[in-house]
Each structure stands twice: as structure tokens, then as C-alpha cells.
Design goal:
About 35% of the residues lie in helices and about 20% in strands. The strands form six sheets. Strands 20-28-26-25-21-22-23-29-30 form a nine-stranded mixed β-sheet, with helices on both faces. Strands 12, 13, 14, 15, 17, 18, 19 and 24 form an eight-stranded mixed β-sheet that branches. A six-stranded mixed β-sheet has the order 4-6-5-9-10-11, with helices on both faces. The longest helix is centred in the N-terminal third of the chain and has 32 residues, at about 50-80. It is globular and about 90 Å long. Strand 17 (about 455-460) and strand 18 (about 465-475) form a beta hairpin. It has about 700 residues and is of the alpha/beta class. Helix 13 (about 370-380) runs parallel beside helix 14. The protein contains 21 helices and 30 strands.
Length: about 700
């Protein structure tokens, strides 16, 4: 991976002991390790520079969401159930909260180190990120003109007094605080950063492309918004608020006349005003810091000093402000998903699926065949219904357009749309309204379970009777993420799967989680039981002197029942290989406990998102793809689907993908029994599991 530098947390050893017990790793500590792997990508000298900047931005965005959701959840749990303990490491929520809050301080040091290195490397490549104090007089004058013309009109300064009471600092918004003086009066000024401002400004001249961030501009010139006042000190702040909200159908029934959408809108709005869970500060002023911390009533352990930027999202737009030739050297080569010759030349997607199951591998292969299938079915006279689960959609969704057209053409279109998809609630409320207006039947999930399944059930009726085409996938029906996330999709005309799919939608519509299915394994009743049953089968093989094998790929592993079963399988001699991008709560390679379990994590250009569960080998191999991770929330508290891979050609292709991932020596990290991740040693040919030439074989 080039001359990559490993980020080392000097305090890791002492703190890992507290957050690790026996064969278990605390989920929050494991997540922080995952985000460290993201941050390491920002130092990887084999990755183009602006892409490294994007990894830094992703690290920061991940941390934002972690505080809003996970720290928010620990905070709430600690208040409601202070004596409750984690079922793996036996820590209370408060103990976890305090330990993570302390450990996060080190993350800020590491991200500043990463930015400093990135800034230096960018300068050597011809791109300067400047601070105000380093500007020449000419550039200061240019910036002053830009600020006066383009920035100042969008600023809303306010002086806090009896007629201007303190505003509520909104979630993840930047504010300037000023200590002001006018005549003999001292007061405080507050100014919010406008969303309409560009995040970065490029100077008009110079041999190198030179930029300054909007944060830096306002920190140094923002005081001009307070004409007539003298500024004695200033700080920039950003508040993160608790975004952990729980929704219950009964509350909607009682308070909102059974309208869950109205209830959810009210809950989402509370995110702006819930308790502060983190305060970030740039600058020094004891009096202003005291003022804001008292106003927020925030604990000292949740205050973090930021030396540079609060956000690095500008790295996603910087290439557009550079000359094309320079931008090419600093970004990944353009990647275009392909369409197989078979599907490209097919005159009918319906006929093609009926001949043989179709596999789509995002982002290496395009989502276009699925959109084409939906549009074809919208026009076919023999198609009588289309039913789909929706968790997240693209902002401009062609999937939604195809569904609306099908409904307008007289098809029975049912959309199970999950309004509680975190941070996509408002987007899903919008699409629910649009689809409803087009005549689609809208179902808002199933009681108090989130519907996270990825399934489309298409029903046909002709002189030969009823037939089905079913799509089952590991990721969302989202054209945008299909270009960034690795996901698997199977489109099949199998009758039993078709009947299961139709039964699934009937059960969702009547909130029946106990429905019976022939082929599909569905949570919360069947999926975990099926995983355990198949692991027991591999244990039986190993005890009989045969080879037991399990290969699992997922985003996260936290379910204690499954962790304990994996440990049992390891002790029985089953060979277990796990590819887990994010949270992993099992300690692998522990002698006498988990010595036959190997765990790797792959963090690269694309977000590894597919879930694959593979038992045994050869002709006896049983493989499932699923929307579900092996997390308690997925196995017990969501409606998820796992489908068996019936087509042997497709099974062989997916198994080949797993073998490539297990051979990755570019982006892979191996989890040790110490709880630390180390880079997989590169021996022989470099194998990058996200190289399409390895995947699409």
C-alpha cells in the first residue's frame, strides 16, 4: 500500500483491556477501531491525494454520526436503566459512555496529524490549503473583496441582550462567538454559518492552485459583521445533539390518530433541540467557553478542541475547482459499472430472468438492468402487481419513477417504506407522499420492527396461470449508493421463492412476523435459527472427522448467541473465516476458545456492504445472501430476508468473490487476539478485492 503510515493510539493497550472481556470486544470500542481504519486510508500514499482527503472527511462524518446515535443511545440508556450492563463485556452504559468520551480525545489528535500530512503532500503536488496568517497582502485584499461581496450579505450576526435572547445552537451547525465591547458595555455576539456559502474559495492567481476554507475566512473576517463593536476575543463552535430517537406505533395511535408519518415528523424535529452530546471548539477564550458550556449544560469530558476544520467535506468538491489534468492526478480514475453482454443484448428482461437467474454485483455492474425490468413490467399487460420494500432511495430516484408509472398504468403497486430509516426519515416521508399521490399502496413498516429487507415481488398472470419474478438484494434500491457500495442482487423466477415473496408482503400488510416460508429465512423468527442450525451442521461434520467450514461476510457482528455458536464451532474444529468491515465483537485466534476463527476487514474505495453466509464446501455448500448483518438489532428487532443462492453458476461466482476478498493484501486488515488490527502482509501478487478484474470473472 505504498509507504502507508500506521496510526498508533498510544493509550490503546490500557483501554482495550477495559473494553474487552474473554472472547468479547465492546461494540463501541470496536466501532472506533473501524473508524481508525478509515482514517488510516487518509495517510495511504498509494491513494490519490483528494481521495485521501475524502477518507478524512468520511472519518469526521462517521464520528459525527457516532456521537449523535451511539453516544446518544448510551446517554439515554444510562439515564433510564443505570444498572443495566452490556451482555458481552458487562459494562454499564455510563461506563461505556465515559470511556469512549475519553478515548475520543485522542482521535482529534490523530485527525489533526492526518490533515497536517495531507496538507503537506497536497502542497508538494501543486495544491495549497492556506491559513489567513500566511496570506500575502495582495491575497488578503482579494479575500476582503470576496468576503464583502459574497459572504457578508449571507451572515446573520446577533448581539445577545434582553431583546435578543440566546438562540438555540442547532445540531452540527458552525457558529462564531465574539466577546464584544461598545462604549462601556461588554456583550456577546453570535453568528451562524450559512449553508448557502461555498465551503472553500480558490484564489485567482499563483503558480499553484491555492485555497482557503470558509471556516478560516469567517474566523478571520467575520467580525466585520459587527460594525461599531470592538472584538476582544472569538471562538468557533459546533454542537452535536443527541439524535437517538425511539418511535413506537402505540404513541402514534394515541397522539396522532394512527398517522405514523405525522408522529415521525414530530420526533425528527426534536433532533434539533435534544441535549448536547458533544461540543467542538476552535480558538481560545475562557469567558466565551464558559458562557457556551453553561448554556449547553454539557459535561467537560464532551468538549473537544479542534485545531483546523470541523468539516472536511470540501475535499469532495475541490477537484471541480482544479484544472482537469491536475484533478486527474489527484483522484481515482473514472469508474463505470458494466452491463453483461447477456443483459445488454436481451430484448426482454422478463424473458431473460425466466431462462436463468441474474446476478448483479454493484458497483462493478450497473443497476440499469433492474430499472429496465421495472419499466418493462410497468408496461406489460400480464404483469398484475409489483411490491417493493424501500429503506433508502436516491434523491432523484428512477426506481420511484418506475413504480409511479406502473401504478398509473393500472398495476397493483405496494410500497413498504421504512419511515424510521435513520437520517433518511424526511426523504422517505417525501417519497411516501409522491408514491401515494401516484396511486401506490403505502405501508409504513411493521409494528415496532424496522423493515430492512430488500425485496421486489412481481406477479404475472396469463393463460398458464400465476408466475413470479423476485429480486432479492443486500443493499438499498438507491441508484447513487449502487455506484459506491458493494452489494449483491439476485433476480429469479423460482416459483417457491416467488410464493415466499408474495407471502412476505401479505404478512407485512397484516403485521404478522410468524409467517411460514419455504425457501426464504426471515427475521425475527427464522434467520438466526437458520444460521445456528447450519453452524450446528458444520460442527457435526467436524466432530465426525470431516471438514466443517463457515465463511461469513458482513458489516458487523454483535449478536452474542451467534458469537457463542461461532466459538463453539471453533472449539469443535470448524474452519471459520470472517470478512467484517465494521464492528466485530468476537476476539479471534484465542487459544482454546476461538483459535480457528480468522477475521479480516476491508476498507477501500468502495464501501463493503454485501452480506454473504456460506456453509460447507463443494457440492454440499449452502450459501445465503442477506440484507441482515449478524447484529442483535438485525436478527431480533428488524424484518430482514436471507435468500439461498440456488443457481450454481451464481454460487460459484460469489464464492470466487469471497476467495478474492480473503486473499486481499492491499486494503485488508487482520484482527488479532489482542483486539488490534494489523495490515495483511503483502506476499507475491498484489490482490485488491475491489479491483473489478478480480471480481467480475
Amino acid at each position: 500500500m505504498g509507504n502507508e503510515k500506521k496510526i498508533v493510539d498510544k493509550n490503546t493497550a490500557a483501554k482495550t483491556v477495559k473494553m474487552k472481556k474473554g472472547i468479547y470486544i465492546n461494540r463501541e470500542a470496536s466501532w472506533l477501531k473501524f473508524n481508525m481504519r478509515v482514517l488510516e486510508q487518509s495517510l495511504d500514499e498509494g491513494t490519490p491525494l483528494l481521495e485521501r482527503g475524502k477518507f478524512l472527511s468520511i472519518f469526521c462524518s462517521n464520528l459525527d454520526e457516532f456521537f449523535m446515535v451511539r453516544m446518544g443511545s448510551l446517554y439515554n440508556e444510562g439515564n433510564m436503566h443505570p444498572a443495566a450492563r452490556d451482555n458481552k463485556t458487562n459494562l454499564t452504559s455510563r461506563e461505556q459512555f465515559e470511556t469512549i468520551a475519553s478515548r475520543a480525545q485522542r482521535l482529534y489528535e490523530l485527525r489533526e496529524h492526518s490533515f497536517a500530512k495531507l496538507k503537506k503532500d497536497l502542497a508538494e503536488a501543486g495544491v495549497n490549503l492556506l491559513t489567513y496568517d500566511k496570506l500575502s497582502q495582495g491575497r488578503r485584499e482579494e479575500l476582503q473583496k470576496y468576503f464583502t461581496a459574497k459572504v457578508l450579505p449571507l451572515l446573520n450576526p446577533m448581539v445577545i441582550d434582553a431583546k435578543h435572547p440566546l438562540l438555540r445552537f442547532e445540531n452540527l451547525r458552525c457558529y462564531m462567538l465574539y466577546k464584544l465591547k461598545k462604549n462601556d458595555h461588554t456583550m456577546i455576539g453570535v453568528m451562524e454559518f450559512s449553508d448557502r456559502l461555498d465551503s472553500i474559495y480558490r484564489f485567482s492567481s499563483g503558480k499553484k492552485a491555492s485555497f482557503i476554507t470558509m471556516e478560516e475566512i469567517i474566523r478571520n473576517l467575520g467580525e466585520y459583521a459587527f460594525a461599531g463593536y470592538t472584538v476582544s476575543s472569538a471562538i468557533t463552535i459546533r454542537v452535536t445533539r443527541n439524535a437517538d430517537i425511539e418511535t413506537y406505533v402505540e404513541d402514534a395511535d394515541m397522539e396522532y390518530n394512527n398517522d405514523f408519518s405525522q408522529y415521525l415528523k414530530s420526533m425528527v424535529e426534536t433532533r434539533l433541540i435534544k441535549n448536547a452530546i458533544r461540543l467542538e471548539i476552535n480558538g481560545e477564550s475562557k469567558s466565551l467557553t464558559k458562557f457556551v458550556t453553561e448554556a449547553l449544560e454539557i459535561e467537560d469530558s464532551l468538549i473537544y478542541k479542534v485545531a483546523n476544520n470541523f468539516s472536511y467535506k470540501y475535499f469532495f468538491s475541490m477537484a471541480q475547482k482544479l484544472d482537469k489534468d491536475l484533478a486527474k492526478t489527484l483522484t481515482y480514475p473514472v469508474f463505470k459499472p458494466v452491463i453483461s453482454d447477456r443483459l445488454q443484448n436481451a430484448t426482454s428482461m422478463v424473458d431473460e430472468v425466466r431462462k436463468k437467474d441474474v446476478l448483479l454485483r454493484y458497483p462493478y455492474e450497473s443497476i440499469e438492468p433492474l430499472i429496465r425490468l421495472l419499466n418493462e413490467c410497468a408496461d406489460r399487460k400480464d404483469c398484475i402487481s409489483i411490491k417493493i420494500t424501500i429503506y433508502r432511495l436516491a434523491n432523484h430516484s428512477r426506481i420511484a419513477e418506475a413504480l409511479k408509472r406502473a401504478s398509473e398504468n393500472g398495476k397493483d403497486v405496494t410500497v413498504v417504506i421504512e419511515l424510521c430509516a435513520r437520517f433518511d426519515e424526511e426523504n422517505n416521508l417525501y417519497f411516501a407522499s409522491q408514491l401515494h399521490e401516484a396511486g401506490c399502496n403505502i405501508i409504513y413498516g411493521m409494528e415496532n420492527y424496522k423493515v430492512h429487507s430488500k425485496i421486489i415481488s412481481i406477479v404475472f398472470s396469463d393463460e398458464n396461470g400465476i408466475s413470479y419474478i423476485t429480486h432479492l438484494g443486500t443493499g438499498n434500491y438507491n441508484e447513487s449508493t449502487a455506484k459506491q457500495y458493494t452489494d449483491l442482487n439476485i433476480i429469479t423466477a423460482d416459483k417457491q421463492i416467488g410464493e415466499d415473496g408474495a407471502a412476505f408482503f401479505r404478512n407485512v400488510s397484516i403485521s404478522n412476523v410468524d409467517g411460514e416460508y419455504n425457501r426464504l429465512s426471515i427475521t425475527p423468527k427464522y434467520f438466526k435459527q437458520r444460521i445456528v442450525q447450519l453452524l450446528d451442521g458444520e460442527i457435526a461434520k467436524a466432530k465426525a472427522g470431516k471438514k466443517g467450514v463457515f465463511i461469513g461476510k458482513m458489516n458487523s457482528l454483535t449478536d452474542k448467541v451467534i458469537i457463542d455458536k461461532l466459538a463453539e464451532a471453533s472449539c469443535a474444529g470448524v474452519e471459520i473465516k470472517l470478512i467484517i468491515r465494521g464492528i466485530c465483537c468476537i476476539v479471534p485466534e484465542k487459544p482454546g476458545k476461538t483459535e480457528n476463527i480468522k477475521v479480516i476487514s476491508i476498507v477501500g474505495r468502495f464501501l463493503e456492504h454485501s452480506r454473504i453466509y456460506c456453509f460447507g464446501e463443494g457440492k454440499d455448500r449452502i450459501m445465503y445472501i442477506s440484507s441482515a448483518d449478524l447484529m442483535t438489532r438485525n436478527t431480533d428487532r428488524r424484518v430482514e430476508i436471507a435468500t439461498p443462492v440456488l443457481d450454481k453458476d451464481i454460487e460459484r461466482k460469489i464464492y470466487g468473490m469471497l476467495q478474492v476478498m480473503l486473499s486481499d493484501n492491499v486494503n485488508a486488515r487482520r484482527l488479532l487476539s489482542s483486539g488490534e488490527y494489523v495490515k495483511v502482509e503483502s506476499e507475491g501478487e498484489r490482490v485488491n478485492a475491489q479491483d473489478a478484474s478480480f471480481i467480475c470473472v
